[in-house]
Design brief:
- The chain has 73 residues and is an all-alpha fold.
- It has one domain.
- Helix content is 60%, strand content 0%.
- The chain contains 4 helices and no strands.
- The chain is globular, with a radius of gyration of 17 Å.
Length: 73
C-alpha cells in the first residue's frame, strides 16, 4: 500500500482545485448532452439566460458579476 500513497509526497491542493475548476464546464456539457438536453431546456428549468449557461460550459466566469453568482449554481 505504501507504493500508492506516501505521506512524504507533497500534495499540490491549489493545482488540483484549479484543474477541477477548469473542467467544470466540460463536465456540465457532457452531462447535459448525455441526457439529451438542449441549453434552452436547462435555461427554462433554471430560469437563467442561455448566454450564462454557455459561459459556464465554456469556463468563462468573467462575465458573471461575482463569485456569489457562480457558487449559487
Amino acid at each position: 500500500m505504501s507504493e500508492y500513497f506516501s505521506m512524504r509526497e507533497p500534495i499540490d491542493v491549489d493545482s488540483a482545485v484549479e484543474r477541477t475548476m477548469v473542467n467544470i464546464g466540460e463536465i456540465l456539457r457532457r452531462q447535459r448532452l448525455a441526457k439529451g438536453l438542449k441549453l434552452d431546456d436547462i435555461a427554462r428549468e433554471l430560469r437563467i439566460d442561455v448566454r450564462q449557461l454557455e459561459a459556464l460550459e465554456n469556463n468563462q466566469y468573467a462575465i458573471f458579476s461575482g463569485s456569489v453568482f457562480i457558487r449559487g449554481y
